[in-house]
Specification:
By secondary structure, this protein is mainly beta. It is built from no helices and eleven strands. It starts with a strand and ends with a strand.
Length: 121
């Protein structure tokens, strides 16, 4: 079974930086996309940033210019460098991967367990 293991969350002051990492493992044969979502209390989960094979990196407008997503294909790991953090970035951040694994010809989506990011004002 595919597993996504996240790390790097924590508490930071406004204006600070954090880097999130997510390593995918478990018989992955190919990856269509990896990305990060976040969910703040009382709000819906939203896509923050995504790397999709063959496409330009995608960012939600609120993080453009502050967050950078990158991927190590050899290690099936995706990173989210978050700079100039704001209190409104506070949320649980979830890693997401759309991968081919096992004997299936169709990709499946898997989620990490989530990591808390808290930005104090």
């Amino acid at each position: 079974q595919v597993q996504l293991v996240e790390s790097g969350g924590g508490l930071v002051q406004a204006g600070g930086s954090l880097t999130l990492s997510c390593a995918a493992s478990g018989g992955i044969l190919g990856t269509n996309a990896m990305g990060w979502y976040r969910q703040a209390p009382g709000k819906q989960r939203e896509l923050v940033a995504e790397i999709r094979t063959g496409n330009a990196n995608h960012y939600v407008d609120s993080v453009k210019g502050r967050f950078t997503i990158s991927r190590d294909n050899a290690k099936n790991t995706v990173f989210l460098q978050m700079n100039s953090l704001k209190p409104e970035d506070t949320a649980v951040y979830y890693c997401n991967a759309e991968v081919y694994h096992g004997g299936s010809s169709l990709p499946r989506v898997f989620w990490g367990q989530g990591t808390q990011v808290t930005v104090s004002s």
